[in-house]
Amino acid sequence: MKGATRLIFPLILLLLCEVNGQRRSRPPKKRPTPPPSEPVEPTELPPPLPPGPPSVFPDCPRECFCPPDFPSALYCDSRNLRKVPFIPSRIHYVYLQNNFIDKISEESFKNATELRWINLDNNRIGSIDSRVLEKLDSLIFLYLERNHLKEIPGYLPPSLEQLRLSRNRINRIPDNVFNKLDHLILLDLHHNELNDADFKKNTFRGLKNLMQLNLAHNRLHKMPPGVPKAVHQLFLDENQIDNVPNNYFKDFPNLAFLRLSYNKLSDKGLPRNSFNLTNLLVLHLAHNNLSSIPYISQKLEHLYLNDNSIEKINGTQICPTSLISFQEPSSDLDNVPRLRYLRLDGNNLKPPIPLDLMMCFRLLQSVVF
Ligand SMILES: *[C@@H]1O[C@H](CO)[C@@H](O)[C@H](O)[C@H]1NC(C)=O
Ligand SMILES: *[C@@H]1O[C@H](CO)[C@@H](O)[C@H](O)[C@H]1NC(C)=O
Ligand SMILES: *[C@@H]1O[C@H](CO)[C@@H](O)[C@H](O)[C@H]1NC(C)=O
Ligand SMILES: *[C@@H]1O[C@H](CO)[C@@H](O)[C@H](O)[C@H]1NC(C)=O
């Protein structure tokens, strides 16, 4: 158990950092040069590494490492493995990332009924036998980033809390695949080949507790329907979205982080009140084609509007609270808009920054103009 706490603690930290990372102001960044095309497949895979020294655990697979002080963990990562070794029943955490595994056999997982955490990132898995997953009824984390999956695996265990499937080739979401996953907190599908037809009204049904949904870098032209209402973080950047339906975000009481940068939004497709949401803290709208600034709520802290087509800005109009109230000596700080970081560079604005903007957003620490 001591081992388990040790492992889970950094994870919580990691999650916190992710959230904090999004709140911290970032220095202005140029769009990175496009990533190099996919590496060419080597014709010959490197041979599996030779087995390590004998383990204190007689059931430890020879190609893996079984830490003596952490009997529930099995490290088989970065060993040039072609298949998953037999996983002993005492194992809760198995690390199989950075190998050349292309198939998951039922046999390997036959006794591993206590598994809580499987990391298979960066392998060559194209599909997973449903009989493997459905038996893992303690599984909490399933990491399958950077594989060759074409669809979301079926029969995912209802215990699952995090499902990471980014950087695959997923272009299909089987019906009802998320139906029973009411413990799922994080669903990461970024950098796949999903398009509008993959998302139906019921696609996300069942994800009652989902907090983070990442659909960035796919092939969406429309906002996906049926996004779970509980989400705190919704990432849709790097798609082709040109339109946000009226009231799309109306019933998202928790939404705090929203990313829609690198899409095709213009004023025409965007009701001006779309993002005037009570709990929104961070809004990314950079690299679109907006001409005016959408209305924001008093609580918003970070707004990215760089690289759009904004030509003028009227601080009085976009101010979420009435300007006049601040001029009264009794005005209390509770009503001051919370905006601290604003990016407007890469538009058609000319300095100086309008005075009414500064008078409204008195907590602004940084404006990139
Ligand atoms: C799998 O578990 C069964 C029942 O606990 C046990 O008898 C068997 O030896 C295990 N198999 C292996 C290969 O460890
Ligand atoms: C933003 O929403 C609030 C609360 O719903 C509302 O009072 C306010 O008028 C809205 N702002 C604009 C500019 O529509
Ligand atoms: C951006 O929007 C303007 C009209 O507001 C339009 O004339 C222009 O073609 C659009 N640019 C792109 C790249 O879509
Ligand atoms: C900004 O908008 C307000 C209210 O709509 C208007 O009274 C004011 O003249 C505008 N300011 C400029 C500089 O256009």
Automatic annotation (TrEMBL):
Keywords: Disulfide bond, Extracellular matrix, Glycoprotein, Leucine-rich repeat, Proteoglycan, Repeat, Secreted, Signal
Pfam families xrefs: LRR_8, LRRNT
Basic residues biased stretches: 23-32
Annotated SUPFAM superfamilies: L domain-like
Gene3D superfamilies xrefs: Ribonuclease Inhibitor (3.80.10.10)
Signal sequence segment: 1-21
Pro residues bias locations: 33-52
Subcellular location: Secreted, Extracellular space, Extracellular matrix
LRRNT domain sequence ranges: 59-93
Sequence segments annotated as region (Disordered): 23-52
CC annotations in GO: extracellular exosome
Chief place where the protein resides: secreted
A GO MF term: heparin binding
Family: Belongs to the small leucine-rich proteoglycan (SLRP) family. SLRP class II subfamily.
Annotated protein name in UniProt: LRRNT domain-containing protein
Annotated source species: Phrynocephalus forsythii
